[in-house]
Amino acid sequence: MAEVVAPKYDSIRGVGLSLEPRGTTVDEVVHSEASVDGVDIYTARITDGYVLENPEARDRVLRMEQRWIDQVSPRDRNGMLTANSAFIANEAAAEFYSEGHPSIRAWRNLVPSALALYPLQNPHIDTLPDGTPLNDTEREYFAFTTDAIALRSRAAVFAAIVNNDDSCNPGNNRWLSLAGGAADPAVKAAKAANDMPELTLVDYDGRALGFAHDLAREAGVDDRLTLIKQDLFDFEGTTTALGGEGAYESFAVADILGFFEYLPDRMSDNPYGMPITAEDFLAYAYRFVEPGGRVVFGNMLDTHPSLDFTTKVVSWPYIQPRSVDEVIAITRRAGITDPVKVYLPDDGVYSVVEIQKPPAAQPE
Questions:
Q1: pTM tops 0.85
Q2: Where are the domains positioned within the chain?
Q3: By CB neighbour count within 10 A (0-12 exposed, 13-18 middle, 19+ buried), where does 222 fall?
Q4: Which class does domain 3-356 fall in?
Q5: Which of 7-16, 55-64, 252-261, 345-354 has the lowest mean pLDDT?
Q6: What is the tally of helices (H) and strands (E) in the chain?
Q7: Per-residue pLDDT, 236
């Protein structure tokens, strides 16, 4: 059974909440490839405020990141870091999570929850979501690793897409976030909107939903927020939790920004034992957007410049890096033939995909 999480949901102890980061901005979007088979590819040029403020720290962290990557062998397995099981794949991972890095050791217990992403999205905060203090040295890792910068870029592109007045439907301002966890990108995008949306978050992680409520309250948008604790692999239960089949084609936006890349292409090639495929989940999310509405999702690129750091040193689990062609192939197997826009932030880590359902035909 789904649980509608009320505003009285317990807050997480000791969190340093803030919705005012240094700022990551989309400076320019350039159409980098001509449309082929209904697919347009854009390069997004991004300015990250943390890097702009302290480029020397970014250089220091990049050198450390590369040193850890250089210690990794092609034979090393990807790590499998979760709160219940920490497989340390190699010496570089052991050093990264050593006793000399107390904040990072505490952070590993949040992986792979969306709570673990929050200090990378907002490294100016004073504590991790579990209350662990951040010291200045380790704060640099949360601020300046390639993945941290890329997460902020991905969120900035998402906000630019959903707040594009030229392509949104007038009269419907309901957004749906599926498996968004603590929903930092969704809350920030909602806060930035000219017309504040009604935001519905659905996730199985009750702690992350409680944290999302804290974020929304801090942003002053909690009165526009509905939180639903629900197993998203149960499509029938999720539909019921959202109000039944009447919820189909009722949202202007459906985002699966950070979840899509965890799902396999096919059940026959499913290293993490997920119960559904990426195409099945995408087809399901697509059902909730109205004609003219948009589905937005992200996927780590298989050309990520520091991929071994993510998968073998940090040991973040479940990720299925993909090329743009592979992502587009999944959308087509999902039965979606609509035009697709792919945005590639210039840090080279993620693709962000926008699918707009065709507007309803107007009566003549």
A1: yes
A2: 3-356
A3: middle
A4: alpha beta
A5: 7-16
A6: 13, 12
A7: 97
